[in-house]
Amino acid sequence: MKSKLSSFLPQTKRFAIFALIPLAIFGVVLVLPFIRGIFLTFTNWDGFDFDRLVGFDNYAVAVQDDRFWSAMLVTFGYVIASLIAVNLVGFGLALLVTAPLRSSNVFRTFFFIPNLIGGVILGLIWQFIFGQALPTMSDNFGLPFFSDNWLLGPTTAFWAMVIVTVWQMGGYMMIIYITGLMSIEKDVLEASRIDGAGPIRTLLSIKIPLMAQAFTISMFLTIRNSFMAYDLNLALTGGGPYRTTELISLHVFKEAFGFGNFASGQSQAVLMFLVIAAAALTQVVLSKRAEVQR
Amino acid sequence: MNKSRQGKRILFGVGAFLSLVYVFPFVLVVLNSFKERMSIRADPIALPEDWLWQNYVEAADKMEYFQSLTNSVLITVSSVIAIIVTSSMLAYYLARTKNRLSSVTFLVLVASMIVPFQALMIPFVGLFGNAGLLNSRAMLVFFYVGFGVALSTFLYHGFISNIPFELDEAASMDGASDFMIFRRIIFPMLSPVTATVAIVNGLWIWNDFLLPSLVLSQDNRTLPLRTYVFYGSYTSDYGLAMAGLVLSVVPIILFYFIMQRQIISGVSAGAVK
After folding, report:
1. B72 in a domain, yes or no?
2. Residue B262, Cβ density class (10 Å: 0-12 exposed, 13-18 middle, ≥19 buried)
3. Are A135 and A149 in contact (CB under 8 A)?
4. What is d(CA A222, CA B190) in angstroms, rounded to the nearest whole number?
5. Considering chain B, what is the average pLDDT of its residues?
6. What is the CATH number of domain A64-293?
């Protein structure tokens, strides 16, 4: 008992020195609004005040909002398209810059650049490219597909977002895939070459299975980032034309801060969180299973 | 031999072509930032007839470039330093304290990384806005610590767990206090993780838009915020708008070319863990 007491004081002191401040900030900034946010969805909160509990009423309002479902649908399409395209491009770029070329470092430098710049600035840059540059080039050189401003048509605006996303995130995923490719031991590759495996066979049967973890990470990050995408959506299309490319983040933002529907907007935000958590966990579980099976 | 040389040539061709595709948007923006409005409408891909530096002077003035740049630098640097200090200490505490509370705390931190900011931004604005705590750069730094501490603590935690405990014990025998052990012995050993933490958080905070757009207004605005507002008000004057975009991208690109190696390795270490 005595020894317990004598170790209690230094323990508390250690906690006060090292952990108290960081945990207090974390609690106030992240945990408190998160928990309060969940609680508020069960009240008649108007952004300032609430005076009673309303059960699941806000969720009932939230799921009756057609725009919410169309935003969810667009988001799912966007996540799936990005997931496939970003990872194909990222992996392809990684293969390219790990090939024995003198210029591969220069290429790598270029491919990573879009990643340094925030989604808002990238969106503005591409607004100009899709709106001005490509249509003119199309007129002058007969470049196909781009004669109309892509951002003005619902389908083309959606694909414009996917293209810019691939351009932005491809370089980042490339870095992860490079790390994966580099971690494969040279002996294994040498052995497969001696056994007569060609480059494609080596890629499919040796490299990809041995770097499965890199795929897990990249796919997780792509899913998470594209579910949460806001900056690019805002700056490139603003959700237009006619809110057809409005992703879920932008929708929630507009519900709350644009239309003042705080309680139902927050309910949609909570639903969005649940969807992201479920999607991310499912993907990790599936990928881990695939990793083990090799 | 000949075949492999040809293969290399094809690879080089593909790489060069893709590099061009990658930088093409930037090149166009730079070219047009030197032009007048009318010549952009006529032909956005031609070289400028005379190089108008005037667009830059005007854009820098109208977007209050130096003020916004200072805001961005101040906010990013102070947040990164604050995150390094708080999360390295928290990670040290969690890695060295073996009890139920510390493992639960660690789990909560890890779990919090999946919570998107959007899931709590509405109550966040309610809480801090009603308390009158928004629109200050210092508060923004405080918020960044709150949102950044989980990932950074996680990164430090993995590294500290591999530092043998005997090191702490030996120093403790020599009479060093807990804080001295951390400050003099442990923290210097963490420098590779510190570099990763600095780069991962620095890139995020420098480019962040949503949080500062909710927190800051007017004079306190960061570069991305200011650029967005500026671009919105001068959409018809493309030359000016393009100059604004170039100005807002130049600092990070310069930083990248100076610190390229550290940035690439920091990014890969931060992502893979």
Report:
1. yes
2. middle
3. yes
4. 29
5. 89
6. 1.10.3720.10
- Those residues whose C-beta lies under 8 Å from the C-beta of residue B77, and which sit 6 or more positions away, are none
Q: By the 8 A CB rule, do B60 and A205 touch?
A: no
The tens digit of pLDDT for each residue in B60-105 reads 988 899 999 999 999 999 999 999 999 999 999 999 988 888 999 9
Report the CATH number at residue B174: 1.10.3720.10
With vertex at residue B98, the alpha carbon angle to CA B108 and CA B159, rounded to the nearest 5 degrees, is: 70
Interface of A with B in 166-195 (CB under 8 A): 167, 171-172, 175-176, 178-179
Domains: count for chain B: 1
Q: Does B228 map to a domain? A: yes
Domain limits of chain A?
A: 2-57, 64-293
Contact A42, A54 (CB under 8 A): yes
Q: What is the largest CA-CA distance in chain A?
A: 88
* Buried b or exposed e, range B4-20, using 16+ CB within 10 angstroms: eeeeeeebbeebeebbe
- CB contacts < 8 A, A to B, total 244
Type of residue at A47? G
Record: contact A18-B182, CB cut-off 8 A = yes
> Which residue is associated with the tokens 């250690």?
A14
Which residues of chain A are under the pLDDT cut of 50? 1-2, 294
In chain A, which residues have their Cβ closer than 8 Å to the Cβ of B97?
11, 14-15
The per-residue pLDDT for range A244-263, each reduced to its tens digit, is 899 999 999 998 888 888 88
Integer Cα distance of A244 and A158 in angstroms: 8
Sort out which chain B residues have CB atoms less than 8 A from A172's CB and list them. 267, 271
